[in-house]
Amino acid sequence: MDLNADLGEGFGVWQLGDDEALLDLVTSANVACGFHAGDPMTMRRVCAAAAQRQVAIGAQVGYRDLAGFGRRHIAYEFAELRDEILYQLGALDAFCRPYRTRVRYLKPHGALYHAAARDETQAAAVVAAVNDYDPELPVLCLPGSVLAQLAQGAGLRVVAEGFADRNYLPTGQLVPRTSPQALVADPHEVARRAVRMATEGTVVATDGSVVPCVVDSICLHGDSPGAVTAAELVRAALVDAKTTPTPFT
Question: Phi then psi for 153, rounded to 5 degrees?
Answer without folding.
Answer: -65, -30
